[in-house]
User: Which sequence fits this backbone?
């Protein structure tokens, strides 16, 4: 079964790596184990997202919210990726709920617990460095304005957050300001290549705005983050979400005017924070996975919109049955495509490759374990390291060379050479038809194994 690679795209991806490593030690390496942390985190999103909706609208609406969080395409798909970025969605949803609960109870201990959760959220995804400070600035300003947070609450919250998150906060300042490494006993914090802050700029605000809207409700340019016709939340959700946005903004305005707390405020603050980040993203811009923290907000607004229309329509029960029917048909169409048609019609595709272990086992059986072997799959060094359980100390690739595909581990090489050598072994996969055909044409013999082809030269 193919799976999405855990790459070095984020230096803050330690939570999923530690969870996956612990599970691999206890149970053994498999693609299922690599996917398990993300799947478990999707339950965190479901549970705390439902609790947030319950706090705002009550039990009955919370059931509808739980149903939407279960059936919407984005939430189904993100729960199946072994993609470190998606941990932020569950982490920040839980953090927001705990902050809401702290405000509701007014107890200092809950503010401290919320601060701990926000501190842990900093480790979920590198872009949390920019989303969470903006969110906390807006939300805490709102809470102080309506007088629902006191100095002792803010102190407990900030102290807990700093206690958990200070290493990453220090790293961000060291990297952004070019400071000298910080050494505290056995701990060294220094700048690293690939820091996401260097990709934040204002060069393409207009283009990013258009792409933000597409990524929010439709799809991005990738083949795997969302699909045509189904999109992130189903097309039926778009008008409900936009209507819910209007209602939420109006609700927050009234709450600020009357100085009473509204659950809508932190939800809109999170959405606003992700929006601000999206406008400033460099590289390929605001792809769906980079905006993952906002998708609960969009589901929340969809629930808000449906509920708002329900209260306005003369025949509300018929309206709800019609909405339920449309969502049921949408789910059926999506599930049919995603689980039955997509695997065979889209694969192979970049970033989703089969497990290397059957190939390594076959090389051993063929007596080719020590042969010079070239793996043609992009990011092959990462997949090989997982399958062969290579120590990171033995696989200390130069960052640019590794990402560009020029990396080696012993006699295993992860780049396409010049003219093939008869004494070497070549591993290709289904999408590399041109190189595979070249090998066939010059006399190599191919042996299909687990989605790959092992090429050897026989006189």
Assistant:
């Amino acid at each position: 079964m193919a799976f999405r690679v855990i790459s070095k795209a984020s230096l803050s991806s330690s939570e999923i790596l530690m969870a996956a490593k612990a599970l691999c030690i206890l149970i053994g390496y498999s693609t299922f184990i690599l996917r398990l942390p993300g799947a478990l985190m999707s339950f965190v999103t479901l549970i705390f997202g439902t609790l947030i909706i319950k706090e705002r609208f009550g039990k009955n609406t919370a059931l509808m919210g739980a149903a939407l969080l279960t059936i919407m395409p984005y939430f189904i798909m993100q729960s199946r990726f072994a993609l470190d970025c998606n941990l932020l969605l569950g982490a920040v949803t839980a953090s927001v709920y705990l902050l809401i609960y702290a405000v509701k109870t007014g107890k200092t201990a809950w503010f401290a617990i919320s601060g701990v959760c926000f501190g842990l959220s900093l480790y979920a995804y590198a872009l949390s460095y920019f989303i969470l400070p903006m969110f906390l600035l807006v939300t805490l300003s709102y809470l102080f304005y309506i007088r629902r947070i006191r100095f002792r609450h803010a102190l407990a919250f900030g102290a807990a957050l700093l206690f958990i998150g200070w290493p990453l906060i220090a790293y961000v300042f060291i990297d952004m300001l070019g400071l000298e490494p910080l050494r505290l006993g056995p701990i060294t914090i220094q700048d690293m290549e690939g820091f996401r802050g260097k990709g934040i700029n204002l060069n393409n605000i207009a283009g990013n705005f258009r792409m933000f809207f597409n990524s929010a409700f439709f799809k991005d340019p990738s083949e795997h983050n969302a699909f045509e016709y189904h999109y992130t939340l189903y097309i039926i959700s778009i008008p409900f979400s936009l209507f819910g946005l209007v209602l939420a903004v109006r609700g927050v305005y009234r709450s600020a005017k009357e100085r009473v707390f509204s659950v809508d405020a932190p939800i809109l603050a999170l959405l606003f924070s992700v929006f601000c980040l999206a406008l400033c993203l460099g590289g390929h811009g605001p792809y769906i996975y980079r905006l993952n923290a906002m998708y609960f907000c969009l589901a929340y607004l969809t629930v808000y919109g449906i509920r708002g229309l329900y209260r306005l329509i003369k025949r509300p029960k018929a309206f709800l049955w019609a909405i339920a029917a449309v969502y049921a048909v949408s789910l059926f169409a999506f599930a049919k495509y995603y689980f039955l048609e997509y695997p065979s019609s889209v694969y192979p595709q970049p970033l989703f490759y089969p497990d290397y272990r059957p190939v390594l086992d076959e090389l051993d059986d063929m007596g080719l374990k020590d042969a010079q072997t070239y793996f043609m799959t992009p990011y092959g060094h990462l997949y090989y390291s997982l399958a062969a359980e290579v120590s990171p100390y033995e696989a200390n690739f130069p960052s640019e060379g590794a990402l560009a595909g020029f990396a080696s581990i012993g006699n295993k090489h992860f780049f396409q050479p010049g003219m093939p050598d008869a004494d070497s072994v070549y591993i290709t996969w289904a999408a590399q038809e041109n190189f595979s055909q070249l090998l066939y044409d010059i006399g190599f013999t191919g042996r299909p194994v687990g989605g790959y082809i092992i090429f050897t030269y026989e006189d």
